[in-house]
Design a protein that fits this description.
Two copies of one chain form a homodimer. Chain A is an alpha/beta fold. Chain A has one domain (2-186): Nucleotidyltransferase, domain 5, CATH 3.30.420. Chain A contains eight helices and six strands; from the N terminus they run E-E-E-H-E-H-E-H-H-H-H-E-H-H. The longest helix of chain A is centred in the middle third of the chain and has 20 residues, at 75-94. Chain A is globular. Chain A starts with a strand and ends in an 11-residue tail after the last helix. The interface between A and B is large, with 44 and 44 residues.
Chain lengths: 193, 193
């Protein structure tokens, strides 16, 4: 099972790829997509979408994992985050990949960090779990953490926000996703406009 | 000048196309993209993106116009609206089209409706301006209104949220967009995460 975690933001979008084979976790790759903060929003979204689609093509994950958003600084920042998150979810759906969403507290727990721990602690735990010396940016370590969360805990507790659209991708979902599918009544659907 | 207005929502996305030639406004087309409310969010975003991209290819506008979001019911609905808005802005940017954003009050004024008027009044004014008998859905009449806003008032007051990325599309922008470009310091950039 290979999972790509995403930490979406409108200026920086982190991604991280982790593979589990016979109970062993292996770091496959990670990166941060940076956009020009002075570029118009539609152009920034185009860059985020194209680069994330490129990472999905390069790493060919079987699932995409993303942190849920449950607390907001304010409505305007929620709107802007929604734009970036929308193009990230779109890129995953266009590849026919299932998307799983986890609450931030569960992501932290899954790497052994506590609810009060900051991004530094998460990065240290991710490095320890994946035998990395350091991860240069929190966007990437957060993305690896949410990928680990799906692999470590997701089998029983994943909240499916997206399922595949074809038999082909269904066959790639694996037991974890199918189990999470069965648990999907617990998925909290965001309010629709 | 042909403009496609968009009224983005995560369940219904309205669009409307208006053309101005020698001071005459002509209704070109409109529609509402509907998505299955029970489908997972990433799948809904994929449908919205594909269908809006299809409308842009069909109608070949020179600009896209969208209502700005300045008031919010709550942060969660702002997040969900952001997802839909993100894929709409992405579709416009991928076609190399400039995107203009107008405050809701200006959209209403541009069709002769007052700030306190509801969607019904906007629909009636849009029908009168474009010589239509009726428009079946408010999503579509709101989209036509924001297209009219760009044609009626946008020349001096448009807030550019997106500009084209190529010389090809630059040449398609027209005087209104270029003038709005010059006025872009008034563009209120949303907070970045």
């Amino acid at each position: 099972m290979r999972v790509l975690g995403v930490d979406p933001g409108s200026r920086f979008m982190g991604y991280g790829v982790v593979e589990e084979r016979r109970g062993r976790l292996t770091h496959v790759g990670h990166g941060v997509i940076k956009v020009d903060p002075d570029a118009p929003l539609p152009h920034r979204l185009m860059v985020l979408h194209a680069e994330l689609a490129g990472a999905l093509s390069k790493y060919r994950p079987e699932a995409v994992s993303v942190e849920g958003v449950f607390t907001f600084r304010n409505a305007r920042s929620a709107l802007v985050l929604g734009h970036a998150r929308g193009v990230a979810l779109l890129a995953a759906a266009q590849k026919g990949l299932p998307v799983f969403e986890y609450p931030p507290a569960r992501v932290k727990r899954s790497v052994g960090a506590g609810g009060a721990d900051g991004k530094d602690a998460v990065a240290r735990m991710v490095c320890a779990l994946l035998k990395l010396e350091a991860i240069e940016r929190a966007d990437a370590s957060d993305a690896l953490a949410v990928a680990l969360c799906h692999l470590n805990q997701g089998r029983a507790a994943g909240l499916v926000v997206g399922t595949s659209r074809s038999a082909r991708s269904k066959s790639r979902k694996g037991a974890a996703a199918l189990l999470a599918d069965r648990l999907s009544p617990s998925y909290r659907r965001p309010e629709a406009r």
